[in-house]
Amino acid sequence: MSKLLVVDDEIDIREFAKNFFKKRGIDVFTASGGEEAFEIATNEAPDLILMDVRMEDITGVDVLKKLRDNGSDVKVIMVTGVEDDSTIREAESLGILGYVHKPLVLDELQKIVLKELENLS
Amino acid sequence: MNYFTISSLLIFITSVVIGLVIFIKGKNRSLSRVWLLFCLAVAIWGIGGYNISICSSKVKAIHWWRISTCGIILIPVFYYHFVNILIESKNKNFLRFVYILTSLFIGICFLKEDFIGELRFVFDQFYWPYWWGRKSVLFLFFFLFYYGFLLLFTFYKLTYLYFSSSGFKRNQFKYFIIGSLVGWIGGESNFLPTFGLNFYPVFNIFIAIYTGIFAYAIVKYRLMDITVAITRTSIFIAVYSLVLGIPFFLAFGWQESLQRVIGDKWWLAPLITSTVLATAGPFIYLYIQRRAENALFQEQKRYQSTLRQASIGMGRIKDLNRLVNLIVHIVTRTVRLEHSIIYLYDKNSGDFSYAASRSRQVRFHPQQVINGKSFLVKYLSQWHNPILYDEIKQRTQDYGDRTLAHLEQELHDLEASLVIPSFIEDKLQSLIVLGEKVSRKPFTNDDLDVFTILANQSALAIENALFYDDMKQTHEQLFKAEKMATIGTMADGLSHQINNRLHALGFIAGDVLDTISLKRDLPMSEELREVFVDVEHALTRIQDNVTKGGEIVRGLLKYTRKGEEGFTAVELDKLIDAAIEMTQFKIKAGAMTVIREYGNEIPKIKGNFTQLQEVFFNLIDNAFDAMAQRRAELQEEGFKSIIKVNAKYEGGKFIDITVTDNGIGIKDDDKNKLFTPFFTTKVSSKKGTGLGLYVIRKLIEENHGGKVYYVSKYGEGTVAHIKLEAIT
């Protein structure tokens, strides 16, 4: 079973994202912040991470950086809101699959995520 | 030596001097040539009269009378010719006839002894012809034709022209008419002894005055109002005959009585009186003159004082528009003018643009712009003086100068009788163009003085108002900038928050929708299914709104952030490529044609590529929507959506880029709302956010220091004009 980690400080996002992907037989983990995300990423080794860029106490780019610093090559899709170009470029330089804009259309997200996870199996 | 000697000598001297001076000044060739001939004819009479008055023998007198008669014959002829040129008469036949007749008479004068008639010794001073001696019919005919018919005929022409003229010309004709009257009193009265009336030729001196008046009217452009001239002269003569006359009478008339009263030192009385009177004279003269002129020019003085007061009050008005309207209003009303217009210097174009006008006519369409390089502006900048149209016209005629002719044409086009410049530190700031006075009277020197004061005061007031406007604008800009800075920082956090809410909302709706679609096939009652359909619809609407909300948030953010990339050299062609690429998601290939009309010579643009790409994407996107709307609304057969992109660079700072479409166009009512945020006219299916143009303007004008505006006609299409800085 593919593993997906959703990193977002919004409880609603975590709940409904989990709901949504579970229906497609995906093992969904959620993390509300940087520490938690790092922990799950290390322990559970997810196949794909959906990472919010701007969170309450930390940015997604920083989490990504920490992961990469620890040698993780996990696949990451960034979820960006209204961030400026430089943040996105920094994330890109750290190696990401791509990014999706908030607010997103679930259909599209589903396509992207499923495609990535299918590629794995 | 007698009075006649002196007056004749004076005639000779003045006519020779005046004739030559005007001939040498030579403004109007043909006029001054005839004028010289006229003066020489008068001079012949002058020198003849002088010799007649001093010669003792009858033989010599006959000789001089013959010479003088030549002058007498020629004077009315040249006078007629002179007036003929003055009134620009085209009829030369009568003139030719008169000249032929004149040469006949001159011949007769020398050949036929009895033409002049017998001479008799009159007034115990000199010999004078006596017509009754020979009763020469020829002489009578000569007198009646020349000094009767020809003079009246010429005089009639002058007066006729006087009434049909206006302004400066009218005043000039007035001088010629009064001059003529003076001269002919002098001339005709000299004939009285000839026909047996023993009236001493005391008015002979008038002939000298007559040439003087004519000369003044020819030479001077700004003629004193003739009423003033006459009043001043009369007062001068009256005052000085008293000043000089009283001591004179004291000295000669009352010498004996004075001697009786004062004794040996009687002469002290006239001396002291003359000293006192000579000192007081100028003051008395000025006092009487002022009183007389006050009475004469009540009306003029009244409006002059009104204007002076108005010009002082103007400084208090800070609203430019009100101020210029007030100026034209005051001028037109108080002076009673046909119209007045005020033009203000425009820093951006260097021209003078229309600011306000007043006219007695309902349909009055003043010229909108006076070119900064026009002859008028050049002339005023050089001379700093008001310009009178009549004066320029006269000088153009007199000198045939090309520049003056252009200037005249410009004034004519402006319908200007008078143009008053006003300056701020030697820089021409505004022009007040005045039409004719309703009374058709000329502008006097006093008028010009008052207008100049008014213009300078108004210049200060205008400067003041401009400064005030400027300050207000700066203030507003500062305020806006401050507000924007606050909003900018706030917007960032705020939009993040809103976006996250929208995101969550979208997620929730999306997930529920997903669940519904997965469970659609489960068995359920019809009622329940209907509920599911309703819920599904509602959730779809929520999703749509979430998407739109997200777009708005992103649109708003675009202008609160300045581009971080900095400016580079942007190639227009690549920019258009990139913008078209962005539209590919929405616009199917072949749905519209983009034609690039600019050439390779267009320099690169100084700007931020991403931002400019956004701008041109929006422009093309808008154009496409407008064209789609036209297609839908007008249903024209064979309509093709065409966008033309053109660019022009003619030196200077900016490249002018135009994006032209043949879409539906912009309604007049919507034109001033174009750049208002959240304003959209796009039809509901493709509803815009209403931020496109707002963002474009922010990006172009605030981030790039450029300019963007639209020219559009509803039902025909729209042209977007964009000015962007060139890299040269």
What does this structure look like?
The complex is a heterodimer of chains A (121) and B (728). With 121 residues, chain A is of the alpha/beta class. Chain A is built from 5 helices and 5 strands; from the N terminus they run βαβαβαβαβα. In chain A, strands 2-1-3-4-5 form a 5-stranded parallel β-sheet, sandwiched between helices. In chain A, helix 4 links the parallel strand 4 and strand 5 (98-101). The longest helix of chain A is centred in the C-terminal third of the chain and has 15 residues, at 106-120. The radius of gyration of chain A is 13 Å and the shape is globular. Helix content of chain B is 63%, strand content 12%. In chain B, helix 19 (572-583) packs across helix 20. Chain B is elongated. Chain B folds into 5 domains: 3-220, Rhopdopsin 7-helix transmembrane proteins (Up-down Bundle); 239-296; 300-470, 2-Layer Sandwich (Beta-Lactamase); 482-560; 568-725, 2-Layer Sandwich (Heat Shock Protein 90), CATH 3.30.565.10. Chain B is α+β, with helices and mostly antiparallel strands. Chain B has helices spanning 3-25, 29-54, 58-86, 93-111, 131-134, 137-164, 167-191, 205-219, 226-252, 255-262, 268-296, 298-313, 320-335, 375-383, 389-399, 402-414, 445-518, 526-560, 572-583, 609-634, 668-671, 692-703; strands at 118-122, 126-130, 339-345, 352-359, 369-370, 387-388, 418-424, 427-434, 568-570, 593-596, 605-607, 642-648, 654-661, 707-713, 717-725. Chains A and B meet through helix 1 and helix 5 of A and helix 17 and helix 18 of B.
Intertermini distance of chain A: 9 Å
**Oligomeric state, counting identical vs distinct chains:** heterodimer
| Overall average residue pLDDT of chain B | 83
Task: State which percent range the strand residues of chain A make up.
Answer: 15-25%
The total count of strands of chain B amounts to 15
**Series of secondary-structure elements of chain A, N-terminal to C-terminal:** EHEHEHEHEH
| CATH class division of chain A | Alpha Beta
Largest sheet of chain B: 6 strands, antiparallel
Query: What structural class do you assign from the helix and strand content of chain A?
Result: alpha/beta
Biggest sheet, spatial arrangement of strands of chain A: 2-1-3-4-5
The CATH topology of the largest domain in chain B comes to: Rhopdopsin 7-helix transmembrane proteins
* Most extensive interface, chain pair and sizes: A-B, 23 and 30 residues
Q: Approximately how much beta-strand content do the residues of chain B carry?
A: 5-15%
- What's the tally of helices of chain A? 5
Query: What profile does the largest beta sheet of chain A have?
Result: 5 strands, parallel
Name the helicity range of chain B: 55-70%
